[in-house]
Amino acid sequence: MLDRVLDATCGPSRAGLNRTAYGKFHEARTKTAWGHRCQRSFALVDGQSVLASADRYDLAGVFDGQSVRVCAIGSVWAERPAQARLLIDSLIDGAAHEGADLALVFPTMGIEVGPHHKDDVMPMTDLTLGVIESPRYGAPMTMVRGGEDRDLAAIVAMGRARAEPFRFHLDRDTDFVQYAITTKRLLAGLGSAHARELHFFIAEEGITAAAYVVVSVVGNRWTLEECGDRDPSGARVGALLQALIAREPVERRPTIHAWLPPHFLPPQVTIVSAQPSTDAVRVRFLSSRARVTPLGAGDVLFWRGDLFE
Fold it and tell me: Is 197 exposed, middle or buried (0-12, 13-18, 19+ CB in 10 A)?
């Protein structure tokens, strides 16, 4: 059944991976510590025919200071929108019976199922960023190295400190952060040669990560998947971006896209444009623990890297 699901769902909406690569992508993610526990694939079938499929992720979150269980639905595929809607609603109903407090439905390219009447849209903003560079096009004096698994605990600590003021955010532990970064690495490694890259870099103090960036690169387009900094100003994140750009001083400067937490903008970074996100994440409240006033633009911290393919 899983092979039939992967046969049906592999296509342009899966980041350009062919069937063999997409099978390896799915298998590798489910072998990570977090994926093994928290990711499951489901299908709506008629006999031997797959009508719709989706992945369900069991997440931990914080809503108005309370720990909540979050069901997320992604990688949706269907022959018809009504079948996708039926599968999504069935998965959310099942999660509610298992004790989930809210559900997130991630967008999937090429699949438009339409909102449920109980759904809200998470208020995210698509930003295009500019990075201020030295007139000499040189790198700043910052200790930069590639990120490693030993940095994950520091990354989690930075993330939790940054997330504390927000009404809603995911509770990202080390296994979850490793899974999110691994997902982007797999997309880069299993795709066509040179089609996609992933940059995971650390700025450190002593031997401890003090800031980091995770950047997906497709051609001249950079996507800042997530970042963090012990400095509330984000100055080290800005320096990391400057250092990455300065590595290729003769190249055309990249276009950088991101979702950033409200009121977080490194001093070396400018906002070129901002508009409501076209990648609508829908939210459905499932219990009284999370049934409160709607989320506003400054209430949510959510990284682009947490939109699982």
Answer: middle
